[in-house]
UniProtKB/TrEMBL annotation:
<feature type="domain" description="D-galactarate/Altronate dehydratase C-terminal">
    <location>
        <begin position="772"/>
        <end position="852"/>
    </location>
</feature>
<dbReference type="InterPro" id="IPR048332">
    <property type="entry name" value="GD_AH_C"/>
</dbReference>
<dbReference type="GO" id="GO:0019698">
    <property type="term" value="P:D-galacturonate catabolic process"/>
</dbReference>
<comment type="similarity">
    <text>Belongs to the UxaA family.</text>
</comment>
<feature type="domain" description="D-galactarate/Altronate dehydratase second">
    <location>
        <begin position="581"/>
        <end position="697"/>
    </location>
</feature>
<keyword id="KW-0378">Hydrolase</keyword>
<dbReference type="GO" id="GO:0016829">
    <property type="term" value="F:lyase activity"/>
</dbReference>
<dbReference type="Pfam" id="PF04295">
    <property type="entry name" value="GD_AH_second"/>
</dbReference>
<dbReference type="GO" id="GO:0016787">
    <property type="term" value="F:hydrolase activity"/>
</dbReference>
<dbReference type="InterPro" id="IPR007392">
    <property type="entry name" value="GD_AH_second"/>
</dbReference>
<keyword id="KW-0456">Lyase</keyword>
<feature type="domain" description="D-galactarate/Altronate dehydratase second">
    <location>
        <begin position="138"/>
        <end position="279"/>
    </location>
</feature>
<dbReference type="InterPro" id="IPR052172">
    <property type="entry name" value="UxaA_altronate/galactarate_dh"/>
</dbReference>
<dbReference type="Pfam" id="PF20629">
    <property type="entry name" value="GD_AH_C"/>
</dbReference>
<feature type="domain" description="D-galactarate/Altronate dehydratase C-terminal">
    <location>
        <begin position="289"/>
        <end position="528"/>
    </location>
</feature>
<protein>
    <submittedName>
        <fullName>Altronate hydrolase</fullName>
    </submittedName>
</protein>
Length: 900
């Protein structure tokens, strides 16, 4: 007989009596394991974290972990057989594996629905409170705000429109505070929400913003809007006062931006500088740990999350609650299937009922969008052994200790007013869920991870707990706690006490690993577009655009124009610019991509072949529904990967997302895109932030060293790729001249793309001379790379300006002409935007922002636009708002995207 392993050497049972074990390392096909007097022979290779049967399981019998079902056998499963369902088989099929997986699934995702027995419900008693107390060094605020673990100046954008303002303001103020002061930082809080009319999440957004303001870690907060969005400063203030948020007990100011971007930045700098002395005077004092409010999260989970890391947080939470503190469990859809455990100890029947109501509401909302709340696990989750939502949920629920009672079930962002153990409604999307806990008052976040998620929040410390020693060693510079010690024999009491002491040190000011890394992300629970299922079938069967250009009327011949442009040609393509692009495949990789990009630009890497390096940080790729929303996302990313201005491109995955590198390779293969010329890197698999940064820099260095020189070429209008958008009131003469410009470029063989939601298309002066009607269907999908020049209309399943520009730039246009009738738009990270207006009010208020004012005889406007376009494309003029840092990038989720 070959080498025989003892069961404890290679596997774990979550609880005695389970019929499926978890492999703690990869076990090859044919491996022999001795278990309870029998020898098990593995029929297939079982990956680390995946499961195999330890008992015979008959068809129709439940598969059990933690004594709870996570599926039902659909064929006989013998001891030693690898257990696998359909979704995991499909997820593994796009991975580059070196071994075979079973040809057919042997179990199905099926769990009996939970029904609350209210008639026989028994309220649970709370664990006995400790008579003594422990202390930490914190910032005492007003009694209604609590005690902070940090002391930050926060720059809060009320909506997505002011995100670029708070980011740029924070950047300018970084040198204004000293590390030895009592100020922990000046940080921006930019997000994606509130930028459209009548968002469905308006109440949720107001609650979150009010909670962000009064979180005890805030020393001062500047709240920014434009004053005319769907959610404004006045609305935030009114909501806060109506719901008794203690905003008067925090140093704050509401500011509406009315002038030019630069003028408003100067005003913002002055306000914050005036606060610094007062914020720095705030001192840490000894405070009871009853003031600690900790948020419990898991992300990049694996099969060991529910065995080591999550039970560890359960232990810590139970201790804190007994000391009078509070803990918050969240991620509603990641508790589906674990209801029997979650509700095994509840304060009262009302709390149990509220919990189930929140779960059912979440399920209903996702169904309106053609998806299921049970579809949460990402590709990374499944790769690491979480086969379905039931298995993921059972493990996630272990953040509640078996002895802990659920005291409250609350809405997203609802304030935690007392000590105890809370459940807060939120999606499983890590960052969206964390934002709700911060708004609820959490002053620390504990984040468990199997893959090694690097998540941090700007002004609340995050303590990251990794599930296995092997993963901790790989990512030791990015993780705080190795819960794998429990798997190796350390008692939970001993490990729990160590982590509890670490928590007090971090609460007292010791920086967490994430804080030292210097990056953070924010995402509020994103808006959902459907309020019922009435539009579902129509949206699911919307015709796909053909990609063919839209024919233009030929009854008017546009004037010829002899203007020429100097471009470069390289690898059989010509363009106006060459950039190095880092594409994060999910939101969690975005900030790391940004850090690498900044360093490359500071070093002058790639000059003169590349003008600069760019990254496209976004909020998607994980924690959202699949189907149309996922297709839209991948199509848009591929539009950027294939953009003519992109010379060298690398994909940076976090490592546990739905849209990981292998997923993107597969999507490119399907679309006929050559994926071999791209670079690939993984924050988790390559060993953390420092190591992946070195890998990315080395890849670009190799590409630049091997590149052939580009040649200069001269092109006319046929070489232009232009996007045209309009915002606000329309000047008919300007619309007519843009129509003429369109005819000239398209007639010469160039490309013009207009988004479907543009007011230009409803303007007769623009549309009738082109195609005789304003009712023309889109020719390309949102974010689709244009393959044939001509005139195109792009689908826009969004009314959000930045989301529209994000899709438009992905089509391959190299210049966006924005006709401004209200105020200037946020610019794009690398496709230049020419801001044009004929409105004197705009000129007066935004003189420093506008690139071209159309005045006098309209017949000369086309030539003026072309001349300024030439300056931009040939890099002799940089659009003003791009130069000032007013830059935005935001993916739409379309009509059917919804957070999971």
């Amino acid at each position: 007989m070959d080498v025989v392993y003892q069961f404890e050497e290679v596997a774990r049972l979550p609880l005695p009596g389970d019929n499926c074990a978890v492999a703690i390392q990869q076990l090859n096909s044919g491996t022999v394991i001795q278990y309870e007097g029998q020898f098990l022979v593995l029929d297939y290779t079982v990956m680390e974290g995946h499961r195999f049967a330890v008992k015979a399981i008959a068809p129709g019998e439940d598969l059990l972990s933690w004594h709870l079902p996570f599926g039902v056998a659909i064929q006989p499963i013998q001891p030693g057989h690898y257990v696998i369902n359909k979704t995991v088989r499909e997820a593994l099929s796009v991975r580059q594996l070196t071994f075979a997986v079973p040809a057919e699934p042997n179990f199905a995702d099926q769990v009996s629905p939970y029904i609350l027995d209210e008639e026989n419900f028994q309220p649970a008693q709370a664990s006995p409170a400790y008579e003594d107390t422990r202390t930490f060094m914190g910032y005492r605020r007003h009694a209604d705000r609590g005690v902070g673990t940090r002391n930050y100046v926060v720059l809060l954008g009320t909506t997505s429109h002011t995100g670029s303002y708070v980011n740029e303001l924070a950047s300018r103020l970084q040198g204004e505070w000293k590390n030895d002061s009592n100020i922990d930082g000046i940080v921006p809080v930019a997000h994606t929400e509130g930028g459209i009319e009548n968002p469905n999440n308006a109440d949720l957004l107001l609650r979150t913003l009010a909670g962000f303001m009064v979180n005890p870690n805030v020393g001062a907060v500047l709240v920014i809007d434009y004053g005319n969005e769907s959610v404004t400063n006045k609305m935030v203030e009114a909501y806060a006062r109506e719901h008794s948020y203690p905003i008067d007990e925090v140093l704050h100011k509401f500011v509406s931006l009315t002038g030019s971007f630069e003028e408003e930045l100067v005003k913002g700098e002055a306000i914050v500088r005036d606060w610094l002395e007062a914020v720095s005077s705030m001192q840490r004092t000894s405070e009871s740990i009853s003031h600690l409010r900790i948020g419990l999260q898991c992300g990049g989970s694996d099969a060991f999350s529910g065995v080591s890391a999550n039970p560890l947080l359960g232990w810590v939470s139970e201790q804190l609650v007994r000391y009078g503190g509070a803990a918050s469990l969240a991620e509603t859809d990641e508790l589906i299937g674990a209801e029997p455990y979650v509700l095994s100890k509840v304060r009262n029947v009302e709390t149990a009922r509220k919990f189930l109501e929140l779960v059912n509401r979440f399920k209903e909302r996702t169904s309106w969008h053609g998806t299921s709340a049970e579809g949460n696990p990402s590709g990374g989750n499944m790769y690491r052994g979480l086969y379905n939502i039931y298995l993921k949920s059972i493990g996630a629920a272990m953040k509640k200790d078996p002895t802990t009672r659920i005291d409250y079930a609350t809405e997203y962002g609802e304030l935690m007013k007392d000590g105890g153990y809370y459940f807060m409604d939120s999606p499983g999307n890590d960052l969206e869920s964390i934002a709700g806990q911060i708004a609820a008052g959490c002053n620390m976040i504990f984040f468990t991870t199997g893959n090694g998620s690097i998540t941090n929040f700007p002004y609340v410390p995050t303590v990251k707990v990794v599930t296995t020693t092997r993963r901790f060693q790989l990512l030791s510079n990015d993780m705080d706690v190795n819960a794998g010690q429990y798997l190796e024999g350390k008692s939970m009491d001993e490990l729990g006490q160590e982590v509890f002491e670490l928590a007090l040190q971090i609460a007292s000011g010791q920086r967490s690993v994430g804080e030292k890394a210097g990056h953070a992300q924010v995402q509020i629970w994103r808006n959902w577009q459907q309020n019922d299922a009435s539009q579902l079938e129509t949206l699911l069967h919307t015709p796909v655009p053909t990609g063919a250009p839209i024919a233009i009327e030929d009854n008017v011949v546009p004037m010829a124009n002899s203007i020429q442009f100097s471009f470069t040609r390289h690898r059989n393509r010509q363009s106006s610019d060459h950039i190095g692009l880092i594409v994060p495949t999910s939101l969690c990789a975005g900030q790391v991509a940004g850090m690498i990009t900044r360093r490359l630009n500071e070093q002058g890497t790639g000059k003169p072949e590349l003008s600069r390096f760019v990254t496209l940080a976004h909020t998607e790729g994980c924690g959202t529904s699949g189907g149309p929303a996922e297709s839209l996302f991948s199509r848009t990313l591929i539009g950027y990967i294939t953009h003519p201005m992109v010379e060298h491109c690398l994909l940076l995955e976090h490592g546990c997302e739905k849209t990981h590198n292998d997923y993107m390779r597969h999507q490119m293969d399907v679309m006929g895109v050559d994926a071999s010329r791209l670079g690939y890197a993984s924050i988790q698999l390559d060993g953390g932030i420092a190591k992946v940064s070195e890998k990315v820099e080395a890849w670009f260095a190799d590409q630049l060293a091997a590149a052939e020189p580009a040649e200069k070429v001269t092109v006319g209008l046929e070489g232009l790729r232009i996007g045209i958008v309009s915002v606000g009131a329309m000047n008919k003469d300007a619309g007519a001249q843009l129509g003429l410009l369109t005819r000239m470029i398209v007639g010469a063989g160039g490309l013009v793309v207009v988004p479907e939601n543009s007011e230009l298309l409803a303007e007769d002066a623009f549309s009738q001379p082109l195609f005789g009607s304003s009712q023309v269907r889109p020719s390309i999908a949102y974010g689709e790379h244009v393959r044939r020049n001509g005139f195109h209309i792009m689908e826009t399943p969004t009314t959000h300006g930045v989301e529209t520009i994000t899709g438009l730039a992905a089509t391959g246009v190299e210049l966006i002409i924005a006709l401004i009738g209200d105020r200037p738009m946020q610019t794009h990270p690398f496709v230049p935007m020419l801001q044009v207006t004929s409105e004197q009010a705009v000129v007066h208020n935004h003189k420093q922002d506008v690139d071209l004012v159309l005045e006098g005889n309209p017949n000369i406007w086309v030539n003026q636009i072309l001349e300024r376009s030439k300056e931009i494309l040939e890099h002799t003029y940089v659009p003003r708002l791009y130069q000032q840092g007013n830059i935005g990038f935001q993916m739409t989720r379309g009509f059917l995207g919804v957070s999971l």
